[in-house]
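Title: Request for sanity check on Integral membrane protein prediction

Description:
We are preparing a figure and want to confirm that the structure record we downloaded matches what your pipeline produces today. Could someone re-run it with the sequence below and paste the raw structure tokens into this thread? We only need the token string, no images.
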Amino acid sequence: MGELIDAAVGFPGVVLSSALAVVVCFWLLVAVGAGRVDSFDEDADLGAVGLGGVPVSVAVSLLTCTGWAVSLAGTLAVARTGWTGLAHAAGDMGVLVVSVLVAWGVTRALAPALARAFRERTPGPVPRDGGGAILYACDDTGASFTDERAPEADGIGSVPEADGPRAAPDATPPAAPADDNWPHADCA
């Protein structure tokens, strides 16, 4: 057990152990509701590096955990070789590089399956057979909602009631100029 702890807090394990501590704290914040899984998705586009469709937090967590495990195994292997001095330092640097490359490869290999899983969990707008569209908008408080518009004779779609059948809304939406795409939604 002492050898494992030495590997985790010594070089090169400490690099990925520190990153793992950040990942664990992030997921604890998500678990208590103080953060969201997609918190960093607006800041980074993983599609450019082949990880598109996977939330940034999930990709970085997988990369960090895999790299940490490989780093520990490599550090223990280098420690048991009996190398000293420059040979030991070169072995440690090699472990760091290999652990990051293996972690990248594992994350990249699992990205398509993870992207499919997240795509299946996130429902998108699905028009009905009648050709209606689902509009996304925000109210005055910034809360977002959907409004399903069906092509009806009066041009007003039906809005689902909380407890039963759909009913036509009582008031018509405000008129907008013909070249204006109503409704305007700025949830940011």
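Thanks, this matches our download. The two ends are 50 Å apart (CA to CA).
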